[in-house]
Amino acid sequence: MSSGYSSLEEDAEDFFFTARTSFFRRAPQGKPRSGQQDVEKEKETHSYLSKEEIKEKVHKYNLAVTDKLKMTLNSNGIYTGFIKVQMELCRSPQTSPNSGKLSPSSNGCMNTLHISSTNTVGEVIEALLKKFLVTESPAKFALYKRCHREDQVYACKLSDREHPLYLRLVAGPRTDTLSFVLREHEIGEWEAFSLPELQNFLRILDKEEDEQLQNLRGRYAAYRHKLEEALREVWKPD
After folding, report:
1. Cross-referenced Pfam families, in alphabetical order (predicted)?
2. What's the whole-number mean pLDDT along residues 118-143?
3. pTM
4. From CA 180, how far away is CA 164, in angstroms rounded?
5. How confident is the model over 75-85, as pLDDT tens digits?
6. 8 Å CB contact between 59 and 49
7. What are the distances in angstroms from CA 115 to CA 127, 198, 212, 236?
8. 180 bridge partner residues
9. Which of 36, 128, 156, 157 is most buried by a 10 A CB count?
10. Exposed e or buried b for every residue in 207-238, given b needs 16+ CB within 10 A?
11. 191-223 pLDDT, tens per residue?
């Protein structure tokens, strides 16, 4: 039985991913990802730090690592490394039939992902859901960063465009300083559902409304019939 911890050796193809693979949704046909797009994404990722600052931080990060999960800085300025994400879901999400996978709703289930500095929060969420063959929309989930400061714990929801590995690099390797948590999206009751799902809900409500109206009409028809019978008995001539 699985312990709930996804090792790096399991399902390597859908466990490891970088921004240059086709792991996530592809560009529309006829509009392939160009090298210029990659450069722009790279610039967006590294707008926080200069190349020298990144090099220095990666070096310091690796010196502080105690679990051998070090970062690697490539010649193009993109760096790769590992993040650990804890699953804290209130309910068991819908999974693909016959998946044979452990439900990520197991409290405390920790997953280690090897990612690139260009990977976004949205891509990390998709990777986790794909890992467990979860069929629900990624919009129903959110990635949080958990920070520890002066004996206080703070949780902050990350936007889909933020880069988890950059946050990991800046915070250092200690998970008691910064950790990542996957939770159900804390948004409005209906906002997490897709348009087809909402339309299906309306169809169900319409059907239930019709059934209730038919039942109500039947009840009143029965009452009317009994009342008419009672009136006929009262006014029946002797």
Report:
1. Nore1-SARAH, RA
2. 89
3. 0.58
4. 8
5. 999 999 999 99
6. no
7. 10, 34, 53, 89
8. 85, 145
9. 128
10. eeeeeeeeeeeeeeeeeeeeeeeeeeeeeeee
11. 656 777 778 888 888 999 999 999 999 999 999
Structure tokens at 148: 């520890």
What are 180's two structure tokens? Answer: 């990542």
Tokens 């890992």 sit on residue:
131
10 Å Cβ neighbour count for 68?
7
